[in-house]
């Protein structure tokens, strides 16, 4: 096995591509790498101005997106950079039907975007950073986890939310 990650940089995000089983590695300096499981470098590019915080692959065509501490949502296929959150974007996940990608951020919001990078909806209700998210297998719901110690379950079309918490610490 070749070394999987560079030892001269700190890793800040890691994922496995759901189709190719290649490794997606994000670094603190904004560099992204795509590597085989054996460590061979396929692609390396600085896509973010700061720490990479998450990856997601479009279920339809497998194209990649990422979010980072710079607040950017990056669509790798066309190198489209969208300012998604202020100051940073923390989480990302595509809907199962590839109709939208969801992001969460330090601006207390969860957002959805079209595959072309157009804003579709903003989900407000957290009183702290939204640290992560998860989309249901049917795409009808998205859950968000906040620093406000609350988990919210949203209906994607109506933005109606169910609140769970408060929990002992930030979620």
Description:
- With 171 residues, the chain is mainly β.
- The chain has no helices and 16 strands.
- The protein has a four-stranded antiparallel sheet with strand order 1-2-3-4, with no helix packed on it. A four-stranded antiparallel sheet has the order 5-6-7-8, with no helix packed on it. Strands 9-10-11-12 form a four-stranded antiparallel sheet, with no helix packed on it.
- Strand 6 and strand 7 (72-75) form a beta hairpin.
- The chain is globular, with a radius of gyration of 16 Å.
- The chain starts with 10 loop residues before the first strand and ends in a 7-residue tail after the last strand.
Helix content: under 10%
- Summed over residues and divided by their number, the pLDDT gives a mean of 91
The major β-sheet equals:
4 strands, antiparallel
- Secondary structure category: mainly beta
How many DSSP-defined strands?
Answer: 16
- Low-confidence parts: none
End-to-end gap: 36 Å
Task: Output the radius of gyration.
Answer: 16 Å
- The fraction of residues assigned to DSSP E strands is over 45%
As laid out across the biggest beta sheet, the strand order is: 1-2-3-4
Number of helical regions: 0
Helix and strand sequence: EEEEEEEEEEEEEEEE
What characteristic shape results from the CA principal axes?
Answer: globular
């Amino acid at each position: 096995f070749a070394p999987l990650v560079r030892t001269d940089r700190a890793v800040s995000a890691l994922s496995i591509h759901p189709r190719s089983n290649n490794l997606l590695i994000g670094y603190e300096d904004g560099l992204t790498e795509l590597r085989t499981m054996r460590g061979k470098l396929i692609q390396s590019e600085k896509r973010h101005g700061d720490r990479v915080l998450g990856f997601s692959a479009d279920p339809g065509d497998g194209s990649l997106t990422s979010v980072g501490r710079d607040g950017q949502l990056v669509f790798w296929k066309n190198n489209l950079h969208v300012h998604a959150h202020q100051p940073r974007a923390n989480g990302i996940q595509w809907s199962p039907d590839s109709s939208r990608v969801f992001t969460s951020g330090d601006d207390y919001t969860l957002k959805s975007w079209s595959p072309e990078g157009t804003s579709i909806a903003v989900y407000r209700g957290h009183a702290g950073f939204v640290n992560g998210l998860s989309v249901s297998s049917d795409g009808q719901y998205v859950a968000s986890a906040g620093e406000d110690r609350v988990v919210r379950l949203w209906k994607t079309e109506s933005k109606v939310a169910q609140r769970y918490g408060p929990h002992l610490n930030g979620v």
